[in-house]
């Protein structure tokens, strides 16, 4: 069993990004500028944005976080998005999800300029993705592919089961793995799917993005499978100093012994998501030069 190490892989990619940023500085060009818009005080969102800030600092990006109370109106937030669209100093920006219930996430995402949509959520970028055209690929699916590429994991002709159909992970990764270059036969399972274990037991590759802690158990996986765990959940645990432990969508201790490759949680897909956002921001900056 081989661990697909996201910390190691993301660190190597960061080194390459940092080298390009140094070249930009030496050529007198502005460094990439990433802006994160954070609405409210959601703990997970604040942690994620802080990690993005730290990653930007590591590679030499300019990073800005715009913080707004959860009482901001939809109209006011859309006005802030419009300002960022028009700000020539900003290469890319994200609006951290989830948003308060009184704000339409779809409206906000649609308002972001496709050229600055480094999250890859805009309908134009999603449309390009489905047509195999160059675009911003959403960060988590992009990170998964980079991890598989780093370890030379063979995907052509393999049966991949994706558990989850979200617009952020499940749906885009199913499209990407089906495209030329990866050439998987893809099955998508979700909350309404019956007998999911029937599909997973046949899978050569499992992408677990269902959001249920330790959903995938040992009896759901065949010998030699490749398992990518996208989930990350805090589970109460009084034996831990912080009072909780981090687990994924896969019951690691049961599943790992049966796998040829598996991602750990934490330290697997998470670091790859952040570094993929950096790659998209660099792509946006280079396109604007």
Which class of secondary structure composition applies to the elements? alpha/beta
Could you report the average pLDDT, rounded to the nearest whole number?
96
So what's the oligomer here? single chain
CATH superfamily of the largest domain: NAD(P)-binding Rossmann-like Domain
Largest sheet: 6 strands, parallel
* Whole-number count of domains: 2
Strand order, main sheet: write it out.
1-11-8-7-5-6
What is the strand content? 15-25%
CATH architectural arrangement of the largest domain: 3-Layer(aba) Sandwich
Number of alpha- plus pi-helical segments: 10
Q: Which value, in Å, is the CA radius of gyration? A: 19 Å
Silhouette: globular
The number of E-state strands comes to 11
CATH topology descriptor of the largest domain: Rossmann fold
CATH class of the largest domain: Alpha Beta
State the helical fraction.
25-40%
Span between termini: 44 Å
SSE pattern = EHEHEHEHHHEHEHEEEEHEH
Describe the structure.
- The protein is 40% helix and 18% strand.
- It folds into two domains: 87 residues, 3-Layer(aba) Sandwich (Rossmann fold), CATH 3.40.50.10860; 132 residues, Rossmann fold, CATH 3.40.50.720.
- It starts with a strand and ends with a helix.
- The protein is globular and about 55 Å long.
- Strand 9 and strand 10 form a beta hairpin.
- The protein has ten helices and eleven strands.
- The strands form three sheets. It has a six-stranded parallel sheet with strand order 1-11-8-7-5-6.
């Amino acid at each position: 069993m081989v661990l697909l190490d996201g910390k190691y892989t993301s660190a190597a990619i960061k080194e390459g990004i940092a080298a390009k940023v140094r070249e930009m500085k030496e050529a007198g060009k502005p460094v990439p500028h990433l802006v994160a818009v954070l609405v409210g005080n959601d703990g997970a969102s604040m942690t994620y944005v802080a990690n993005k800030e730290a990653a930007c600092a590591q590679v030499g990006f300019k990073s800005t976080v715009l913080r707004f109370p959860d009482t901001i109106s939809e109209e006011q937030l859309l006005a802030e998005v419009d300002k960022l669209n028009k700000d020539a100093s900003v290469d890319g920006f994200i609006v951290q999800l989830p948003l308060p219930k009184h704000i339409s996430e779809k409206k906000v995402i649609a308002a972001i300029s496709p050229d600055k949509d480094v999250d890859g959520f805009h309908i134009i970028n999603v449309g390009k993705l489905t047509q195999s055209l160059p675009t911003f690929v959403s960060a988590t699916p992009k990170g998964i592919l980079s991890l598989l590429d780093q370890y030379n994991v063979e995907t052509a002709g393999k049966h991949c089961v994706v558990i989850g159909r979200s617009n952020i992970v499940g749906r885009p990764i199913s499209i990407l793995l089906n495209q030329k270059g990866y050439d998987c036969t893809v099955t998508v399972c979700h909350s309404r799917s019956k007998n999911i274990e029937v599909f997973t037991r046949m899978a050569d590759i499992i992408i677990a993005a269902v959001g249920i802690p330790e959903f995938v158990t040992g009896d759901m996986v065949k010998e030699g499978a490749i398992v990518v765990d996208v989930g990350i959940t805090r589970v109460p645990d009084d034996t831990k100093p912080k009072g909780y432990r981090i687990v994924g969508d896969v019951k690691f201790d049961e599943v790992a012994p049966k796998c040829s490759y598996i991602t750990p949680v934490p330290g697997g897909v998470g670091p790859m998501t952040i570094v993929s956002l950096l790659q998209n921001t660099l792509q946006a900056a280079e396109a604007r030069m």
